[in-house]
Amino acid sequence: MKRTIILIVLIFLSALFYGNEILTFDEYVKVISEKLPEIKLNNNEVTMQELEVKKSYSAFDVKSGIKLYGQGSQTYPDNENTIYNYSPGFGSALTLTNTLPSGTELSAGVTYRQTYSGGEVTSANTMTGSSTTAGWQKTTYNPVVNIVVTQPLLYNWFGFLDRYSIKNEQNKLKIEKIIQELNNLNILNDYKKVYFQWIALNKKLELIDKTIKNTELQVSLINNKVNLGLLEKDCLETIRYSLLQYEKQKKEYQFNYEKLKNQLSSFFDIQSYQPEDTFFNQKYEEYLNKNFDFIDFVKTKNSQILNISKSNYELLKKARKNETLPHFNLFANLDINFYYAEEISDGEKTTYTFYDNNYKNVDFTTGIEFSLPLGNINARSNLKEAQLLIDNIVLEYKKTKKKYDNQLMNVLSCHQYIKNLIDLNNQSLESLSSKYTIQLDQFKKGMTDLQNIVDTDTSITTEKMNEIDIKVNLINNLLDYEYLTE
User: How confident is the model at residue 3 (pLDDT cuts 50, 70, 90)?
Assistant: First the structure.
C-alpha cells in the first residue's frame, strides 16, 4: 500500500513539474500563420488583385439597352387641299452590344415605332366647279432589326488595347502572389526566431538556476569555514558578490522571458507549453554542417518580380504607342424594315407591307471612319512616360542585385564567422574547465585565492551562455539566408 501511495505521489509531482505540453515547431508555425493578421492582409491583397483580373474582362461584357418613348408630330403640307391632323405615337428600342477579343464590336437591336395619322383631302371638280372633302386615317407599324459591325484597324488594332488591360492585371497578379510569398516568409521568419529565442531563454534560465544553486552551496561552505577560522571573511564576501551577480543575470533573463511571453500572448500562453528542445539541437547540427551556396540573383523571387514588371512596362509601351495612332475603323450597318400600315380613306381600307415593291425593306451601309486628335499631346506624353518606366525598372534591377549580392556575402561571411566562434568557444570552455580544476586544487593547498576560482567559474558560465547565443545566431543566420535567396 505504501509503495502504491508513493508511486501516485511521484506521478502527481511529475505531472506538476513536467506537465507542460510540448509545442512542436511545426505546430507553433501553424498557429502563428492562422492567427497573424499580417498574413491575412497579404492573402486579401492577392484576392483583391484576382478580382481586378476578373474586372478586366468586363471589356467583353454584353451591354444591353432599352428605350421606351412617346412621340407626336404635326405635318404642314405644301398642298393646301390636304390637311394633316396632329400625329401621336410611341416607340421602343432594345440593343445588345458586345466587343470580341479581336476588337470587333457587334451591335444587334430591334426598334419599334407605331404612329397614328389622319386628315382630310379636298378634291375639286373642274367641270362642275364643286369640291368634295374626304377624311383619311392611317396606322403605321414599323419594326426594324438593326445589325452594326465595327472593326478597328489602327487604334486598338484588332482589340490590342482591350487585351492589354487583361494581360496587365494578370501580370500584376503574378507579382502580387510572389510578394505575398516573400512577405509571409519574412513575417514567419521573425516568429521562427522567437521560437528559438524561447528555447534559448529556457536554457539560460536552467543554466543560471544551476549556477545559483551551486554558488549558494559554496556560500554555505565558505561561511562554515569562516566561522571555523579556516578562511578570511573577504572570501565570503567574494562568493556572495558572485551570487548577487548571478541573481541579477537571472532577473534579466526573467524580464526577457516576460517580454517574449507578451509577444506571443495573442497566440497562446507559453507558460502552458514547452518548446521542442530536441528540434533546436537537430536544427543546430543540421545548419552547422550545411554548406551555404552563392545563389545568383536571377534565381530569386525578387528577380522574378522585377522581370515581370519589366515585361509589363514593355507591354505598356506598346499600348501607349498604339494609342498615338488615329482611329481608323471598318464598319457595316444593316437595317431590315418590317413595315406595315393600314389606311382608311373614304371608307376604303388599304394595307401596305414590307413585301410591297413601293417600300424598301433593307438598308445596308458600309465604309470606313477616320479620326485623329490634332497634336495628340496626352498620348505622346504617355508613350515617353512608359519608356521612362522601363528605364527605371532596369536601373532598379541593377540596384537590387547589387544590394542582394552584398547582403548574401554578409550572410555567408557571418555563417563562417559563427562556425569559427563555435570552435573557439569549445576550446575556451575546455581551457577554462581545466583551469578551474587546477585552481581548485591550488586553493586547497593555499597556493591561490578564492577570487581567481570565482572569476574562472564566472567565465565558464559566460562561455556557456555565449554558446547558447551562438547556436541561436547560427539558426537565425540560416533563416535570413533562406529568405534572401528565396
Answer: very low
